[in-house]
Amino acid sequence: MARVFFAAFLLATLGAGSAAAQRRVVDLTAPDSLTLKATIFALNVSAFPGSPNAYDSLSDAYLAGGQKDLARANAQNALELLPSATGLTDEFRNAIRQSAEQKLKALGGPLR
Question: What is the pTM of this model?
Fold first, then answer.
């Protein structure tokens, strides 16, 4: 089985369009990069399926691209994973929760 040799924060940094990522890769904040951004975050979710941050970031990418149902579903996934997620500080856990809840509120609540 192939092993994945990258860290979740690296993909999150690339997907978020940090200044370093913009210089070295592409400007992931540009409107025409939304598909690439969602692809990067989807790869992050595949590599780290237990990470609520990965799902929340993918939700952000889908929301930016106008894909509201996918944004809603991934924000909900982030919230569902939070109770069992390990290695998160309380501050980071709360930030993920707030981010996901804000998206769900704006999008009309969780999927049923």
Answer: 0.72
